[in-house]
Amino acid sequence: MESNSVGLVTPRTFTFGSVEEPMVLESGRTLGPVDIVYETYGEPNADRSNAILICHALSGDHHAAGHHDPHDRRSGWWDNMIGPGKGFDTNRYWVICSNIIGGCKGSTGPVSIHPATGEPYRLAFPVVTIGDMVEAQKRLLDHLQVRRLYSMAGGSMGGFQVLEWALRYPERVRSAICIASAARLSAQAIAFNTVGRSAITRDPEWHAGGYEGRGPEQGLATARMVGHITYLSEILLDAKFGRRLQSADRFCYNFTNEFAIESYLNYKGSAFTERFDANSYLYITKAMDYFDISRSYGPLKQAFARVAARCLFVSYSSDWLFPTSQTKEMVRAMLCNSKPVSFIEVDSPYGHDAFLVEEEKLTRIVSGFLEGVAR
Amino acid sequence: MNTQYVDRLSRTDRDMILTLVPEAVRVLDLGCGDCSLLGELVAKRQVRGTGVDINGEQLVNGLVHGINVYQGDLDEGLVDFPDQSYDYVILNQTLQVVKNPLLVLNEMLRIGRYGIVGFPNFAQWQLRRGLFFGGRAPKSPSLPFEWYDTPNIRVLSIRDFFDYCRQQRIDVVQARYLMAGRWVQRFPGMVLTNLLAHIGLFVITRAS
User: Fold this and answer.
1) Per residue in A179-228, pLDDT tens?
2) Is B60's CB within 8 Å of A365's CB?
3) Which numeric CATH code is attached to B2-206?
4) How far does the CA of residue A296 sit from the closest CA of chain B (Å)?
5) Is A292 annotated as catalytic?
6) Is A79 a known ligand-binding residue?
7) In terms of CB atoms within 10 Å, which end of chain B has fewer, N or C?
8) What is its main location (chain A) (predicted)?
9) How is domain A12-185+293-373 classified at the CATH fold level?
10) Intervals of CATH 1.10.1740.110 along chain A
11) What ipTM describes this predicted complex?
């Protein structure tokens, strides 16, 4: 383990609500009890004013940094950004990352046991929204006695949560970093989510959500393949794979995994089924589809008048899933309200995935911004 | 030697701009580079500032100092900034390097009540002499570039600037000229001013 790793970490679970006193969701349905799995890195200061909340994206979880055991080859999903001396410097800040409700990594979701039946919820799980995810995080922060976050950050769907926080609880967010995100999910992004969900629900193994065991692996793998394409860029695919063939140098004239890109996507698709639940994929993508600041808070200019946090927006030049134009829309709304806002477009060939891999550039931006927040 | 001289020039520019900006106003700096001018304005004039530059790497320095930054290309306009949302918009040593200087000037006065524009005077006598006698593209300590590597693609004089302002009904509220290393506020006659000034610095506003 490198010296700038947060080292070994243990996830914790916070439970709130009950069958009698459940959480009321945006849809009007209820959920309780609710488990929230989370990890923390670094130490809180005396008045807990150095807390930073990290919000994960579609396929992420609470394990953002460090390792779960010494032999673990995989580190947390944002390990390149969180640690001693890193962008989110754990020598200075107390970093918290919690797992969204509706997911399949420990927080209450469709794979959790339904208290009324003793069986997994599956499709009996209520549809949750980004607002519901934030509401659950807020209960966690109350429990952790964090009155006001020094900052919070998230990319993609994580950015949705950051925005929802800044609008719903302006007094509790001192600063916010919204990366490769948007004020609403675009029709194009909903379209790709639709294809993904359709691949799952058309898989005969789905059984209307009632599958046991591994379930609609083919559908889930296809959903991930489509998703994965949207996270990359044409220029990157060309550079990394081109038209290269995986093993032979002549065509086989059959339907095996011939092209390198074919083989890569198939690998990514099946690897995903090892770590993700198909029903969760339906729930989370639906929560993304529903996200629309204007629907909840009015036209953007009006909505952003609520924001009290100093905000930093970061976009990536080759991201076509959450393009720069969608980030600028929010920057404009902040400027219209004379709110403190910064905007940087990072030049990168990595597409939407850039927020996970361009750590060198993001580190400078994030650590600079966090430093400036105290001034 | 040239770079030192240029640094000193930019230092003296900044000192003069500091005296032109009132306290506690909202300032937008176009082509702000590493935000060092804004940093000084925040520290000494308690302004609320935002810096705009095309270079995101440089802007990070502004973030560190708590300055709001916006990465953008001035040549594409500044549509994200609402009308009259700043008191002062600064464009120092930038007018001569943009492709669409008229767009930039218009945007300045749309977004801000006042504009502060500073640029090198290409009609200064040393430059004229170089062109006239040397027969070569003009160079001077403040403009040390070769024709092929100069960032200055818009060659204008103080007289040109006044002509343009008159045409566009822009008021020049204040003027400062750098002559032989000293700032001068008034000088008898445009002909001499245009001959002697290395740099012109102007506070402009849209005539009401």
Assistant:
1) 999 999 999 999 999 999 999 999 999 999 999 988 999 999 999 999 99
2) yes
3) 3.40.50.150
4) 23
5) no
6) no
7) C
8) cytoplasm
9) Rossmann fold (3.40.50)
10) 191-284
11) 0.94
